[in-house]
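Weekly modeling sync, notes
Attendees: S.R. (lead), two postdocs, one rotation student

Agenda item 3: backlog of single-chain predictions. S.R. asked that every request posted to the team notebook include the full sequence so nobody has to chase files. The rotation student volunteered to paste the first one in as an example of the format we agreed on. Action items at the bottom.

Example entry:
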Amino acid sequence: MTRSFRTTASAQGLTPLLILAVALSACAKSNDTDGQRPLEVKDAWVRATNVTASAAMYLTLENHDSTTVQILGVGSSDARVAELHESSDSSGVSRMQHLDSLAIAPRATLTMQPGGVHIMLIDLARSVVKGDTVMMTLHLGDGRTTRVKAVARDETP
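Predicted structure, as returned to the notebook:
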């Protein structure tokens, strides 16, 4: 069924704006179908340290989108370098490997935790004591960024 609308003289000036608004909204990609951001950050924390060499940050990421969310990098004004890392243990030897990116599958959850995937903050601007806040930014594959606020804890929760 097709509906026709007649434009009155008083609404004619709004017609171009309405057409532009409809066109822009049709072109905009919306990953946000249920009112939430596609990538939700939960339980962000950083391990407290009395030295400025490095600290590890952990968090949970929930992808609410129907497409994979790529994390291409991380950054923090509280550290000279921030990197994605993964720890592993092989034959009693712990290793840490730099990750170029992370992919979070549609409707999936990634929990960063000690002994696994985490964010390394290297060459900290200051020591991080229990209760301090550390800010970090996730750089996503679609060009967006997500700010993260992590609270320092003495040990694993």
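Discussion: group reviewed the output briefly. Residues 1-35 have pLDDT under 50 and may be disordered.
Action items: rotation student to repeat for the remaining queue; S.R. to check formatting next week.
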